[in-house]
Structure formats: structure tokens, C-alpha cells
Amino acid sequence: GDSVTQMEGPVTLSEEAFLTINCTYTATGYPSLFWYVQYPGEGLQLLLKATKADDKGSNKGFEATYRKETTSFHLEKGSVQVSDSAVYFCALRGSGGSYIPTFGRGTSLIVHP
Amino acid sequence: GAGVSQTPSNKVTEKGKYVELRCDPISGHTALYWYRQSLGQGPEFLIYFQGTGAADDSGLPNDRFFAVRPEGSVSTLKIQRTERGDSAVYLCASSKRTGEGNEQFFGPGTRLTVL
Known about the structure:
The structure holds 2 protein chains of 2 kinds.
Chain A: E1 3-6, E2 11-14, E3 19-21, E4 23-26, E5 32-38, E6 45-50, E7 56-59, E8 62-65, E9 75-77, E10 86-93, E11 102-103, E12 107-112
Parallel strand pairs in A: 2-12
Antiparallel strand pairs in A: 1-4, 3-9, 5-6, 5-10, 7-8, 8-9, 10-11, 10-12
Chain B: E1 5-7, E2 10-13, E3 19-24, E4 31-37, E5 44-50, E6 53-56, E7 65-68, E8 75-79, E9 88-95, E10 105-106, E11 110-114
């Protein structure tokens, strides 16, 4: 079945550092890929998405590129802020007609001033 | 506007008791989803509704879990004879419709602790 693997956290960075959170997936066909963010005390929010190979999703300075050849969708940001501290979830939605996403375990990001 | 709300935010119960968790979706959203998030894990799908009917309940772990959405708006997740393994955060999400391009909006969750 479909699955998503994320790097384990926590990831601890200083403000203005470069961020990469790795995500790889297993799925048949051509899934859609997502990154969600969960700030402390809040619900999950969609951060960005990509629906086909080589698409780049971007939002709030975060980017991720759908790489079919490596089955990856790594999240990057050039300069993190303290306010980016949150848990980040990679997810996929299969191409078989189901609209239910499969989530990774989440990666906690802690940004220090 | 108001987002998805869930009540209670925290629920502590004893093993064997019955609990109800409530979800108020965004007004006008016809699709509603329930997920369970165990510590250190991502959300796992339980059930989703399109209108009043359960369109897919394949994620419910066993027959102790049941959910309803009688008027196509508010939904209640019901857990009978709770077990310690049921302890988790239960998330609700809603979307305008199902299908490609319909973003799910999540509530803050209900943290259930079974002692």
C-alpha cells in the first residue's frame, strides 16, 4: 500500500539557517504530494502541494519539488524563523480515486533565536 | 470565518467507559473526515462522510468505534468500552466536497486519555 517516510526529528536550527526535511514515498501510479504544518495548539494546515512530476509547490518561503525518479518530496526553506517552529507532515494522496491522504510520522522543527 | 472546531479539547476517561467526541465543520462543507493521531505518528484515517452518509469507514479499527452525522453538519465519533490503546488525539477535518483540489481543513483535535 501507499506509504510516506520522513526524516526523524527533532530538527534544531538557528534562525536564518537553511532547512531541509526529507520525505520519500511509495505509491502506485501518480500520487499528489503535500506538506502540512501543525503549529503548537493548532490544527494541521496545508502548507504546499504538487500534483505531478517536476511540479514545485511553494508557500511562505517553503518549497518542495515532486521528484518521481527518486520518489521524493523534500521540504526546503532558505532562511528559517523562530515562528517556523512546528511539526511538519509529508503526505500523499493516491491516484486511484481515494481522496484520503496517507501521512508520514511528522518531523518536529525547533528554531532558536 | 470560523474554522473546524472540536469538543472537548481534552477528555480523560477510565478503561471500559463510553466517550463521544464532537466535530463542528466549516459551514457549508459537505465532506467530513475523522483521523486518529497516536503519539509520534501521523494522522491515520478512520472514516469520512459525504453529507449524512459514511462514504468510507474502512479505517475504523473495530466495532467499538462508530460515527454519525445525522444532519450533514456536526459529527460525533463514539467509542464504546474504551481501552488504553485508544488514547490518542482525534482529529476532524472538513472540505467543501470530496475530489481533487478540495483542501481539507483540520480542527485542533481532541486529546483522549484512557486510564
